[in-house]
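>> received
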Amino acid sequence: MLARSSDSGSAPRADLDDRSSYQCLDPVGMLDFAIHFPSQLAEAAEIGRTFAALAELRAPRQIVLAGMGGSAVAGDFLVGLCEKRARVPFVVCRNYHIPAFVGPETLFIASSHSGDTEETLAATSAALRRGADILCITTGGKLRQFAQRHREKSVRLLQIPRTYPSMPPRAALGYSLIPLVYALELVGAYPGAGRQVRESIALLARQRNQLAPDVPTPQNPAKRLAKSLFGKIPWVQGTVGPMSAAAYRWRCQFNENSKTLAYSSEYPELNHNEVVGWELAERFAGLIEVVVLRSPDDYWRNRERVSITEHKLIGPKAPVHVIEAEGRSPLAQLMWVVYLGDFTSLYLAFLNGVDPAAMDSINILKAHLEGLRRPRK
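>> returned
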């Protein structure tokens, strides 16, 4: 499953096989959230089934999901999953503004875990003015109030459990993703949702037996990978589609949980630009390790591209870890890769000696933005 690893030259701050050595770094319980993630998926599936049984959504001509951070990542996953299934275009909007094509035949999904994401609120108000069908998925906040205030104007509320601030939105991915899988099945964009969700829950329950903290490092792929990445900059590459979205999730989890710089890119696009940048990689040798995420369903030319790039172009200059997703369905494969990345980022956080839940930089930014007024022209 994992190919090529190297030992970091720096001494880690925690013994990953002794949870007591890093328990103090995790006051919120981020590791416990990961351990119970399969149960979260099961609860989210019940929410999705209940909503789909009651909701009345029209088949759209286009789908837009507005969100930021972890809520937008759920949209990236859905775009990748629907790419070969949906007969309508599906885009993710990370902005205050919305695409010009949004109108009465658009399904506009407003995704905000807290319900108070300012960019999403602004975009959703614009979609309402355009006459779009709006589906708000949130735990509460201003977005829930918006949905309740406009429920007579084709605005529907998909309520998910309020976990914030005890569970950060990135740890609540199941709640922000799985109910929408059922909603998209309802409008014909993602057939077979129930079967794929059931497979994902069962697969991750088994995978947890390999990744949990009580599994020793030699038998634990997440711990081994975290130790290899300690002191390095992870560069995550995914094959186009769900694995590309997973690569971005890995990058964000390294940023937020591990408090380290990380980068992501996708095949085959990286073979047309990024790969040239590795020609002078000796200048930063030892700083970067590459993680490649791929699926058994990848187009055969992309699999060849990964192999050539790994062995001939990047591999001689930086360690490369190639991870092949497990599972039969695209959703199960995606969730399997995401679960491995989540555990890896948490173990790397403990090796870095940091609290994976802390978000000091983002809180500083929000404090500076608070109360700002639009400048006069």
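>> Confidence is low (pLDDT under 50) at residues 1-9.
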